[in-house]
Amino acid sequence: MLLREILRMALSSLGVNKLRSILTMAGITIGVFSVIGVMTTVSALRGSIESGLSFLGSNMFQFSKYPTGITLDGNNRRRIDQRKNITLDQAQRYQKLMEDYTDVVCLKAFYRNGAVQAIYGNHKTEPDIQFVGSNEHFLAANQFSIGIGRNFTAADTDLGRPIIIIGQEIVQKLFPSESPLDKLIKLGGRTYTVVGTLAEKGSAFGQSEDDLAVVPITRFLSDFGSANASLNIATQAPAQERYNETVDHAITAMRIVRGLRPEDENDFELYSNDSLIAAFAKVADAVRAGALVISGIALLAASVGIMNIMLVSVTERTKEIGIRKSIGARKVSILMQFLIEAVVISLLGGLAGILFGVLAGNGLALMMKASIVFPWDWAAIGLIVCTVIGVGAGLYPALKAAGLDPIESLRYE
User: Within a 13 Å sphere around the CA of 61, how many CA atoms are in the beta-carbon half?
Assistant: First the structure.
């Protein structure tokens, strides 16, 4: 028999029991969906997350009291909490020790006193502004640029001037029809003069980067207190080839300002864009492994279901097989028909799983404002696996059908 005719008969047989075929395919669909959905989500978010994690400028690394990007367990959390804060005095001393190695040392402190909103006259933002104290190197260290106005100067930081630079979302909400420069706005109960705006940057990993407000770090700590503030210190190596050398000197400088003895371990964290991306990669690998385990169990159960349904089909169609053999059908034709039926069930379930997985994965990615992707490699792997499952699950029933005695089959009721 021609392959086309065998395929037509196989599809026709599946159409006779639509509900049974659909339920059998559902197991394959669930297994493939779990893999494709996770892989699509991870692939779509990877670029966005890596872009979001790459918030440090070129050749930058950062010191902080707490690690970032990794969830701490209880014991580690208590150990980290016991560390002393990185104070402004320590940060400024570090800055002086690094003067011979770099010109860019960015000091940062974050608002920790609850939600904060920006107010100008009758205009208000949502109470979710990112409020930061920093110095004149904030733009270079965090890949921002000035839209209009100016950046901070060293004198602004030294004198603790009550000035502020705001992001585009704040500009649009507070100053929809006028220039924000030289206007007085209020944040956290304090008043600041707008001296500049940040150029629009967009969002990363679902988080807007345009709802940012920055004031000189000395004014920030004066207004909101330094007792519970721990600073982050970002440092830029002068060139890529001097990156490792700069990091080595920076670690030594940090140990000096922290008053550590040679035998003491570091009581601060060092991270860079690469280390953050590597941390995300570990999480992504764990998610992938979990998805593969879950899908493997689902596909194993589905393959058992396909074999069971095909055995039932052989039993139901015993007389049909006997008739076909009596008029000249060869064993290979019977074998191919039942194998194709099993493979078609598996592939249709796999295609449905790929479709639903891509839609679900990209739907989640769009919610996180990530780009849409199609995981061609995982889709191809999914189809290959479904084909193997179809052949594996359908082989025994097909052999059983092909081996039936035509005379006994014709007598079967």
Answer: 23
66-80, 103-117, 270-284: which has the highest mean pLDDT? 103-117
Measure the CA–CA gap between 29 and 21, rounded to whole angstroms.
12
Beta bridge partners of 57: none
**Beta strand segments in 158-211, E:** 163-166, 184-187, 190-198, 203-204, 207-208
For 340-377, write each residue's pLDDT tens digit. 888 888 888 888 888 988 888 888 777 766 677 788 88
Are 254 and 142 within 8 A, CB to CB? no
Q: How far apart are CA 286 and CA 153, in angstroms?
A: 45
Question: For residues 45 and 368, is the Cβ–Cβ distance under 8 A?
Answer: yes
Q: Say whether pLDDT at 47 is over 70.
A: no
How many CB atoms lie under 10 A from the CB of residue 112? Answer: 11
CA–CA separation, 24 vs 30, rounded Å? 11
Q: Give the chain's end-to-end CA distance (angstroms, integer).
A: 26
The answer to whether the beta carbons of residues 69 and 279 sit under 8 Å apart is yes
Query: Nearest CA to 335 among 300, 299, 310?
Result: 310
409 vs 392: CA distance, rounded Å: 25
Please give the single-letter amino acid code of residue 367.
Answer: M
Under a CB-based contact definition with an 8 Å cutoff, are residues 129 and 116 in contact? yes
User: Helix, strand, coil proportions of the chain in percent (round to 5)?
Assistant: 55, 15, 30
Residues 164 and 183: their CA atoms lie apart, in Å, by: 10
Whether the model clears a pTM of 0.85, i.e. scores above it, the answer is: no
Helices marked H in 98-241: 138-142, 154-159, 168-174, 217-224
- Of the pLDDT bands very low, low, confident and very high (cuts 50, 70, 90), residue 36 is confident
Q: Which two tokens stand for residue 332?
A: 């290979």
Do 59 and 103 touch, CB atoms closer than 8 A? Answer: no
Domain boundaries, the chain: 3-52+279-411, 84-267
As a whole number of angstroms, the distance between CA 258 and CA 241 comes to 27
Residue 40 phi, psi (nearest 5)? -65, -45
410 CA to centre of own chain = 60
